[in-house]
Specification:
By secondary structure, the protein is an alpha+beta fold. It has 8 helices and 15 strands. It folds into 2 domains: 140 residues, Intracellular proteinase inhibitor BsuPI (Immunoglobulin-like, Sandwich), CATH 2.60.40.2360; 129 residues, Nuclear Transport Factor 2, Chain: A (Roll), CATH 3.10.450.50. β14 and β15 form a beta hairpin.
Length: 318
């Protein structure tokens, strides 16, 4: 009888322990939402998703935040017939690369605090057809080491992906995501720089130039600036157009044209009219990854922030 009583006590303690663990784990929420939601077109629209980890518990929540978000985050995207879409090529390649070094930092969320970041859904999932999809995120607080690693599931979103716009003339004039003329928005300096870098990663030139003061960028080069300033006003527009075309065709050596594998904004400072955004950018080469620190200088013109120049320094290799 005494043995049975002890057994019952131990069993109750185990149940209570599991129950307490479940309450603590369940009180950390993973929320996702479309970032600046727009009309999405197959293979033409960036699909940005904001990820939020929210600590609703009464104690501190600890997790590892990987520099490469592929090791923290995954998505499960399904069709209406419940078919799961395949991962993208870049996700598969980086997740399975035996040479990949996973850099991370320890993050502590106090009760009520939130940790958030924005990712591009197409970096994770391969979309082959237009249609309606359900989107759910999986966050791995101790990094994604194997399929059975502990993870938190998010709420589900419904993604409507329209067929692509075919005419090149329409693509050049119309913002494919909104169906409207491509116009700058009232974004803060860090988001302006992020927008520009994302556009460069996707080779979306119209978006890349949207927040760049091309004349100020040209004047950053002393030899070009000297020739440009000698021209009459009527001829300067042609020089700017030629400069733009040379950048698009990558005929000139401009460090901001090199496509980063990933980037991280580390500091943003600005006054009401000018500022700077410091960004760590990572460039993949055959046997190593190079890290550079770019400082983008921005100025406000007619309520909008524009990139007017930049400097860089090499940090090293990994």
């Amino acid at each position: 009888m005494k043995i049975m009583k002890n057994y019952i006590i131990i069993l109750c303690l185990i149940i209570i322990s599991f129950h307490s663990f479940g309450e603590e784990y369940g009180s950390v929420d993973l929320n996702i939402q479309f970032y600046q939601k727009r009309i999405y077109y197959l293979n033409q629209s960036d699909i940005y998703v904001k990820i939020s980890i929210i600590n609703n518990s009464a104690s501190t929540y600890h997790f590892k935040a990987a520099l490469n978000k592929f090791f923290n985050l995954d998505f499960e995207v399904k069709t209406l017939s419940n078919l799961v879409l395949d991962h993208s090529e870049i996700f598969i390649t980086q997740r399975n690369d035996p040479q990949q070094q996973v850099y991370f930092r320890e993050v502590s969320l106090e009760p009520g605090e939130e940790y958030g970041f924005v990712v591009e859904l197409r970096d994770y999932v391969e979309f082959e057809n237009a249609g309606i999809y359900s989107v759910q995120a999986l966050f791995y607080p101790d990094l994604l080491k194997q399929e059975k690693s502990i993870h938190i599931k998010s709420n589900k979103l419904t993604l409507s992906l329209r067929p692509p716009v075919i005419l090149k003339e329409m693509q050049a004039v119309i913002d494919i995501e909104t169906g409207e003329s491509l116009q700058p928005e009232l974004l803060p300096p860090d988001e302006v720089v992020s927008y520009m870098l994302r556009a460069r990663q996707r080779s979306q030139w119209e978006k890349f130039f949207l927040y760049i003061d091309l004349e100020r960028l040209l004047l950053q080069n002393p030899s070009r600036a000297a020739r440009y300033k000698k021209l009459p006003q009527g001829e300067r527009e042609k020089v700017l157009n030629d400069f733009r075309e040379e950048m698009m065709q990558e005929k000139i050596e401009e460090d901001m044209l090199v496509i980063p594998r990933s980037f991280e904004i580390v500091q943003t400072t600005y006054t009401p009219v000018r500022g700077s955004v410091i960004v760590l950018e990572y460039f993949d080469y055959r046997d190593y990854t190079e890290k550079k620190q770019y400082t983008y200088y921005v100025e406000k013109n007619d309520r909008f922030w524009f990139v007017v120049g930049y400097t860089l320094r090499s940090i090293g290799t990994e």
